[in-house]
Specification:
It contains three helices and two strands.
């Protein structure tokens, strides 16, 4: 279950990417969610995924 609030989602996703997952695709697979869904929610608050650092900035 992912947080609904985009700011909390950002923190949750970046923490998971830092501590547990080597890619956003791996995280999405485990949580059964499409990357496009996360991208859209976080883009609305000004964040995009940066593959080189494996986090949303």
């Amino acid at each position: 279950m992912l947080p609904e609030d985009p700011v909390i989602l950002l923190s949750f996703i970046n923490t998971k990417l830092r501590d547990q997952y080597s890619s956003i695709e791996e995280l999405c697979s485990d949580f059964n969610v499409k990357k496009a869904f996360i991208d859209e929610k976080l883009k609305n608050i000004g964040y995009e995924y940066v593959k080189d650092i494996n986090q949303y900035k």
